[in-house]
Amino acid sequence: MDCTVYLNGRIIGNVKDGRKFVHEVINNRRQGALSGEINVNYSKSMNEVHIFADRGRVRKPYIVVENGESKLTEELKQKLESKEIDFNFLVRRGIIEFLDSEEEENILAALSEDEINENTTHLEIDPTSNLSLIINATVFPEYNSIGKHSLISNFLKQSQGLYATNFAKRYDARGFLLYYPQMPMANSVVYRELNFQKHATGQNFVVALMTYQGYNMRDAIVLNKAAIDRGLGRSLFYRSYTDEERRYPGGQQDHFRLPQPSVESYKGEHAYSKLGEDGIVEPETYVEENDVLIGKVSPPRFLEEQTSFGIIEEKLRDNSISLRSGEKGIVDNVVISESTGATKIVKTRIRSVKIPENGDKFASRQAQKGVIGLILNQEDMPFSESGIVPDLLLNPHSLPGRMTMGHMLEMLVCKAASLNGVTVDGTPFSTNGTELVAQYGKILEENGFDKFGDETMYDGRTGTKFQAKIFAGVVYYNKLTQMASLKIQVRGRGPVQILTHQPTEGKPRKGGLRFGEMERDSLVGYGASLLLKERMLDQSDKTDIWVCSECGDTGYFDNMKNIPVCLSCGGSSLKQVEISYAFKILLDEIKSLHIMPRIKFKNE
Fold this sequence. Notes:
Blueprint: E1 3-7, E2 10-15, H1 18-31, E3 39-43, E4 48-52, E5 59-66, E6 69-70, H2 74-81, H3 87-92, E7 96-100, E8 109-110, E9 122-124, H4 133-136, H5 148-158, E10 174-178, E11 186-187, H6 189-193, E12 203-209, E13 220-224, H7 225-229, E14 235-244, E15 255-256, E16 286-287, E17 292-294, E18 296-298, E19 317-318, E20 321-322, E21 329-338, E22 344-354, E23 361-364, E24 369-376, E25 383-384, E26 392-394, H8 398-402, H9 405-420, E27 424-425, H10 433-446, E28 454-455, E29 457-458, E30 470-479, H11 484-487, H12 517-526, H13 529-538, E31 542-548, E32 554-558, E33 563-565, E34 574-580, H14 581-592
Parallel strand pairs: 1-4, 8-9, 11-27, 12-26, 13-24
Antiparallel strand pairs: 1-2, 3-4, 5-6, 5-7, 5-9, 10-14, 12-30, 13-26, 14-22, 15-18, 16-21, 17-20, 18-19, 21-22, 23-24, 23-30, 25-29, 28-30, 31-32, 31-34, 32-33
Helix pairs in contact: 9-10
């Protein structure tokens, strides 16, 4: 049976032997007769050949292996080092080729030249090419569980640091800036080549593996208060607010100015007290939630009505920008500019200092995340024989449970490196763990420490010596953007939705926390029915309606006659019932489908 050939997903013809055809295409590509951009794949199960030459494919370079030997010989390596030839020369000569995900299906790649056998078709240029850019920028990832790599990527994306050198001139929606970012004691080739030290994202913490009164159980960590006072983990949080004088059909437009008490939705004199004469907040002003930052008045949503004297009165509404609820800070900068449509634009940036507090999240480059459970005075922290007080106490169960041996290795080698004042190379797959422990263990011994990093420590409160030796070292930790001060949400009373009469949702809208089905199940299982009624009815959308005891339809209370009335049967024997307003909406929707729902009373 002939084999179908596809080009970029479209059938272009048939060949007798698909495997032989693919082999011929690859040979021609390596000899330069075909473009190196082409990739080809033979699917044995479908008996199809797929050729890809379209843009947007992710392709990866491999060294070609023929007859059990790499085509990148020692002679070529020397020429490459002396810059007689370049990388593109090797690609043009078919020594290195770029493969996409489809062609990778039919190859057998070796990680090193020692692993090449008679079936090997390709050789990895470097073992680290299996890992992403972010993982390659970390250290010792090969000693961790593979599942931690995706977590490491997420934590590094969320870490606070020097995200841009021109941060003072930027107006990002949100910006996090670490006060004292440091270069890690251990780094990798990728970290150095990409100059990541210019955009440092963390600090070197002195870490001790020990428990403390249950305050660092599971994901919790204990931090040294004195270290925080010296600037450990301190950061700036920027939030920008932008507004524009929009133009509307009919020649009307918005205006930046101090709203007068006569405008619709006036917020009160205290809300506008921080504004200047032009209606814009002044730099270096302290502002709190609901303070107006940019005063703006807009034309009414609907056309004006004539007064009794025939004069059209222009009514304005307040459309000012206020600081989000739950936030406070200092006005860092204000910019007044023009848009492309020649309308006025105002941008203001608020800065607030974020000092580590209970609930803030930290993570190492080995996916050891932790939330602050206790900030402890330095005099109560454990200390070593040499008087070193750790910055962070990490639960020892975190390491075997998460299988992050790279964390222990980083602690040991960075401790030795800090004693010698050097940095360590922790490029993935470039080191041997046993040799590293021996090499840096020797440095520790030369400086009077235990070769495995264990130390005798004393209780800061009583001065008692701990019976067990405590493993202590240096680890590079990142402060993550997940901070308690940005997450905390509290509400007693507040706004409700117009449609359902239930509390609004979300922190910016002063919303309540959702009490969902699973929370309801907990109370049902516990038997706390009155608490369930309070949460889901009294504190939500409780409403009273009149129900006719004769026809079962809903009625209303006639204030003129001072009696309840049923519109369906005209009866007056109605009873007041307590229901959820969402249920009333359901009844109304059923009525809109021409179905008559009836509420029946039980016999009293």
